[in-house]
Amino acid sequence: MVSQSTIERPAAAADVQTRGAAPRIKLAVKDLTISYGKAVALKEVNLEVREHEIFGIIGPANAGKTSFLKALNRMDVFTPGMRVNGDIEFNGRDTRHLNNIYALRSRIGVVFPLPVGLPMTVYDNVALSPRWRGITNKADLDVIVQRCLTRAALWDEVKDRLDALGSLLSGGQQQRLTIARALSQEPDLLMLDEFSIAVDPVTTMRIEDVLKELRKEVTIILVTNLVQQARRLADRTAFFLNSECVEIGVTEDLFTGEVKDRRTRDYVEGRFG
Ligand SMILES: Nc1ncnc2c1ncn2[C@@H]1O[C@H](COP(=O)(O)OP(=O)(O)O)[C@@H](O)[C@H]1O
Ligand SMILES: [Mg+2]
Fold first, then answer.
1. pTM exceeding 0.85
2. Which residues does a 6 A CB cutoff place in the pocket of ligand 1?
3. Domain ABC transporter: where (predicted)?
4. What is the Å distance from ligand 2's center to 8 Cα?
5. Distance (Å, whole) CA 148 – CA 129
6. Does residue 4 sit within a domain?
7. Residue 37 maps to which CATH number?
8. In Å, what is the CA distance from 211 to each residue of 25, 100, 162, 205, 221?
9. For the CA atoms of the chain, what is the radius of gyration?
10. How many domains in the chain?
11. What does the pLDDT profile of the chain (273 residues) look like in tens digits?
């Protein structure tokens, strides 16, 4: 893994300049193939994610969903044996040949299936990224911490114990803390990988409400093992199966409209997976 000192955000994010006029297409993926050694995890995927949409990705285990997210934020660099071919443009800029992948990674917030709390207080979990960006003034940090925790629907529950270790929160709270921390990066793109796998249904619904609000500000890629979650949240959804992107469509069409591939309907109706 990378030591913290090497993941400091560069002062000038020259490689991926995302502020200013944003393109309508947030992410363009062309002929993306991912392999681990000789095993192909994802084959020739072509898709686009539009700005401010919630883009769902559904599919059974081992379909290649997580690998796809890893390619987007250049986790391949830290994953031995992982090879990525094809083009990925983020905000119209090629991400495959960057001099500085940290500038890219700082624009992309990631939430994993299990909360990965940093071994520090609730406050510091959220203040870490702003501090890396050079914000050191306590009053400024306070505002950011409160805003991020509020946006993650966690503020009311933790405002009196900001100095407690994040690991002491409940599982559902920790997952929301992870979201608050992702938001503290001020990401352009938020990627969630099966966020609700270890979260109770009530927290899941709260987080779903959070995502509906957040889409006004960020583009969201939602990988989910729950097809009904994709149906509730995603504007468009891709169905991954056995290392292929079988179908991409308006989410509701996958459930009730025309599908191009019967396996899509079989999957969303629970006939396998
Ligand atoms: N680090 C890795 N090394 C080798 N193979 C991997 C690695 N990560 C994933 N794979 C393989 O890639 C395929 C896709 O995995 P993954 O992207 O995790 O799928 P999903 O998230 O849809 O379950 C699987 O066959 C898995 O075993
Ligand atoms: Mg996965």
1. yes
2. 36, 39, 41, 59, 61-67, 79, 81
3. 27-267
4. 27
5. 12
6. no
7. 3.40.50.300
8. 19, 29, 23, 10, 10
9. 18
10. 1
11. 434 333 333 333 344 444 555 458 999 999 999 999 999 999 999 999 999 999 999 999 999 999 999 999 999 999 999 999 999 999 999 999 998 999 999 999 999 998 887 899 999 999 999 999 999 999 999 999 999 999 999 999 999 999 999 999 999 999 999 999 999 999 999 999 999 998 899 999 999 999 999 999 999 999 999 999 999 999 999 999 999 999 999 999 999 999 999 999 999 999 988
For ligand 1, the distance from its centroid to the CA atom of residue 67, given in whole angstroms, is: 6
Tokens encoding 246: 């079988």
- Protein residues within 5 Å, CB atom, of ion ligand 2: 65-66
**Rounded distance from Cα 121 to ligand 1 centre (Å):** 32
Residue 128 structure tokens: 């870490």
The domain in which residue 40 lies consists of: 25-114+189-269
Atom number in ligand 1 closest to CA 67:
17
Which residues are within 8 A (CB) of 156 and not within 5 positions of it... i.e. 6 or more apart? none
